[in-house]
């Protein structure tokens, strides 16, 4: 469903060139649930921006459902983003003056859906994430976990094939984090591809596949990553596929 081939992205900073993504190749399949883990500065945000069609690489290919995203113009990118990808953020990014239902409806307004259809879809998405009975609550009247559920419902509203979650549990306590991760697992079982970006190994381990990013290069786990003795921030070489 997603195929990334030899993707490169550099930033110029004065005289220095930062190679944020170095020849990254990755396949993401129907039904996948993968996490991307890496320390600060490793290239996670850069990679997420590419995966979310928020930025374009310097070179390489990005095929989404067989279409080469890397060559699309801004307007096409915006369309792909709107239809194919649902975004979930660490700090929820809800509008505080709108109710839960109105927040979830918002992306559907941009799609030109009528009010009744919007309301029904938004309500169905809130039901799906376990928030029936909370339609009229404002974000400030909801717990952090409930706010993240609203944000997940909003991401689901447009029925995207991919959910791209950037540190979705970063602002939550561990119990609530587990509930949100459980919800993401259930959504994956229902057929959504989930890409979870995190710096937390315990969170990353919940996914079916774990991709480690380090100095702009990606490594996939070879199955023996998770022995405790081998887990440390600097042990990336140990984790490379043999
Ligand atoms: N706009 C930019 N201009 C110059 N350098 C940049 C820019 N954006 C990112 N970089 C550099 O590219 C590298 C990768 O950054 P990136 O933000 O992707 O890392 P990250 O893994 O998301 O880090 P964090 O977890 O701290 O957010 C870093 O060395 C960073 O300093």
Automatic annotation (TrEMBL):
ABC transporter domain span: 2-240
CDD domains linked to this entry: ABC_MJ0796_LolCDE_FtsE
GO molecular function terms noted in the UniProt entry: ATP binding
Membrane is among the record's keywords: no
UniProtKB keywords: ATP-binding, Nucleotide-binding, Transport
InterPro entries xrefs: AAA+_ATPase, ABC_transporter-like_ATP-bd, ABC_transporter-like_CS, ABC_transpr_LolD-like, MacB-like_ATP-bd, P-loop_NTPase
Protein name (Swiss-Prot/TrEMBL): ABC transporter ATP-binding protein
Protein source organism: Metabacillus halosaccharovorans
């Amino acid at each position: 469903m997603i195929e990334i081939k030899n993707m490169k992205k550099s930033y110029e900073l004065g005289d220095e060139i930062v190679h944020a993504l170095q020849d990254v190749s990755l396949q993401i399949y129907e039904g996948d649930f993968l996490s991307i883990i890496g320390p600060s500065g490793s290239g996670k945000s850069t990679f997420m921006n590419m995966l979310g069609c928020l930025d374009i690489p310097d070179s390489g290919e990005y095929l989404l459902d067989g279409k080469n995203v890397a060559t699309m113009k801004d307007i096409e990118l915006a369309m792909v983003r709107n239809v194919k990808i649902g975004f979930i953020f660490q700090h929820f990014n809800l509008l505080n003056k709108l109710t839960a239902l109105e927040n979830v409806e918002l992306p559907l307004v941009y799609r030109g859906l009528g009010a009744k259809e919007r309301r029904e879809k938004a309500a169905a998405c809130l039901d799906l994430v376990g928030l029936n009975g909370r339609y009229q609550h404002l974000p400030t009247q909801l717990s952090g976990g409930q706010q993240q559920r609203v944000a997940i419902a909003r991401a689901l509203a447009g029925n995207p094939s991919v959910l791209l979650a950037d540190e979705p549990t970063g602002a939550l306590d561990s119990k609530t984090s587990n509930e949100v991760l459980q919800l993401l697992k259930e959504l994956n079982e229902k057929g959504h591809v989930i890409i979870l970006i995190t710096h937390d190994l315990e969170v990353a381990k919940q996914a079916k596949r774990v991709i480690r990013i380090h100095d702009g290069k990606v490594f996939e786990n070879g199955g023996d990553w998770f022995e405790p003795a081998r887990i440390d921030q600097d042990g990336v070489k140990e984790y490379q596929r043999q």
